[in-house]
Amino acid sequence: MSQTTTTNASGSTGAEPALLEISGVHKTYFMEGVTVRALRGVDLTVRRGEFVAIMGASGSGKSTLMNILGCLDRPTHGIYRINGVEVSHLSKNQLATVRNRQIGFVFQGFNLLARTSALENVEMPMVYANVQPDERRERALAALASVGLTGREHHTSSQLSGGQQQRVAIARALVNKPAVILADEPTGNLDSRSSVEIMAIFQGLNDQGITIVLITHEPDIAQYAKRNVRVKDGLISSDAPVERQLDATAELAALPPLEQNGFADETEPPAVDEQEGAKLP
Q1: SS3 (DSSP) at 271
Q2: How far is the C-alpha of 268 from the C-alpha of 139, rounded, in Å?
Q3: Phi, psi at residue 38, to the nearest 5°?
Q4: What is the DSSP letter of 60?
Q5: Nearest to residue 106, comparing CAs of 27, 35, 189?
Q6: Cα(102)–Cα(92) distance, rounded to whole angstroms?
Q7: What is the 3-state secondary structure (H, E, C) of 44-59?
Q8: Residue 26: beta bridge partners?
Q9: Kind and range of the H or E element at 28?
Q10: Cβ atoms within 10 Å of 270's Cβ, excluding its own
């Protein structure tokens, strides 16, 4: 069974350039004399502008696949290319540069600095990218506005709801104009309404051409994506377009406004400029 889909969820025949391309990837761990084959020869292509959800049970290999896609780990064997550039065998420092320039991360636990403002959290990736302070502030303010957090730039994490903290994390993922947003269980710590709000933001970003890869174990969350990839026993067991994609904005419109901490949460998906990752040096 072929593991690389040549027709994406929008019915394209694969004319779009491959943004992420994994070929024959194996990942083997050796722990206390035990060999664990987490990935057993995975082939996967994600094209520019796709919205892909990767699913799988615990122990399926989806977390290992996410780590390789995010350049947090290297394959034992096989090839991984981003924008046509092989990154499989880069050093740790080189992989850190790729992560900073090419990948925007959104995690289940938000990973925000607790005593730091939303604005400062969003500025952080640009500090490592050596962006000048004035530009850092301008870009961070714009990113926060794009996820509906205008007026809350100076709030710390403890002053924000879980959904708002995840919006800060999404803004932080956007500021370096990555090639792809990699979201690992982004709704795992949120209530059902906040989860739909976050998916509305992701759908809005994808509508603007931003590539999104979402890792989730929740079938209903995967239905907001345009393509579902299932991982089982270290292999891709299925890879298909979503036939009945859920519309998060429509679902939110049917819900009554929700007051939180004296103000209503924003529910409109953001209108953002198209962002495209630069080629690797």
Answers
A1: coil
A2: 21
A3: -75, -40
A4: S
A5: 189
A6: 15
A7: EEEECCCEEEEECCCC
A8: 40, 77
A9: strand 18-31
A10: 21
β-pairing verdict for 18-31 and 34-47:
antiparallel
pLDDT in tens, the chain (281 residues): 334 444 444 444 455 679 999 999 999 998 888 999 999 999 999 999 999 999 999 889 999 999 999 999 999 999 999 999 999 889 999 999 999 889 999 998 888 988 899 999 999 999 988 899 999 999 999 999 999 999 999 999 989 999 999 999 999 999 999 999 999 999 998 999 999 999 999 999 999 999 999 999 999 999 999 999 999 999 999 999 999 999 999 999 998 876 654 444 443 444 444 444 444 44
User: Which residue do the tokens 């540069």 mark?
Assistant: 97
Q: Which two tokens stand for residue 38?
A: 């987490």
Distance from C-alpha of 7 to C-alpha of 184, rounded to nearest angstrom: 25
The residue behind tokens 């890869």 is 213
